[in-house]
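Quick entry between incubations.
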Amino acid sequence: MNNAKTVNSSRTTITELMIPSYANFGGKIHGGILLSLMDKVAYVCAAKHAGTYVVTVSVDNVEFRQPVEVGEVVSLHASVNYVGKSSLVVGIKVVAESIKDASVKHTNTSYFTMVAKDDNGKPTEVPGLILENDEDIRRFLDAIKRKEIKNAYKEMLHDTKNNMDIEDNIHLLEKERCIIKRSSDMEGNWHY
Ligand SMILES: CC(C)(COP(=O)(O)OP(=O)(O)OC[C@H]1O[C@@H](n2cnc3c(N)ncnc32)[C@H](O)[C@@H]1OP(=O)(O)O)[C@@H](O)C(=O)NCCC(=O)NCCS
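Done. Structure below.
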């Protein structure tokens, strides 16, 4: 791994003013605007580390905890948390700052998995990551754990979907806000 790079060498921040055209009908910033900025900062950070073109493969943990307002200044701080062979996980912390009252809120932290591609569009090896402090080590370990949990969760979802028997599980709808109107039930009395 003689081409390994530090986390600092690709650390990237994008700062952008939230203008009125980014707002939804409720006057708050569209989630899609933030997602697009997150994708951009993830790209720059991952491409800097990889030294190649990269693509977004998956996005984890997108949960906007507080709305962002027009006039706020949003900063997206990105760093490489983990590298595999051709994949990288970029952690992105999004903060919104109100210039008027100097308040800062942390809106979300999300994780983008990116894959480096060669000139033929094939996944290509990325440099290793030099972990220079406990924070770098913690983030790398966190990413490994998240990957394990995600794989186990994917398998569970796959099994659940493939083994779903409607009649065995239909009682679960009793407490849900839905009405079943299957023609096959019209003679029965289903009112979930
Ligand atoms: C992701 C992609 C490169 C995988 O290609 P592939 O031929 O299956 O390659 P591999 O199986 O060798 O996987 C390459 C890497 O991607 C990782 N990967 C693949 N699918 C993944 C997923 N769903 N989540 C996380 N990582 C994934 C693999 O673990 C592997 O990582 P590693 O090299 O660090 O071990 C391919 O599916 C692709 O190009 N997808 C489209 C991505 C894109 O265009 N994004 C923009 C959205 S429009």
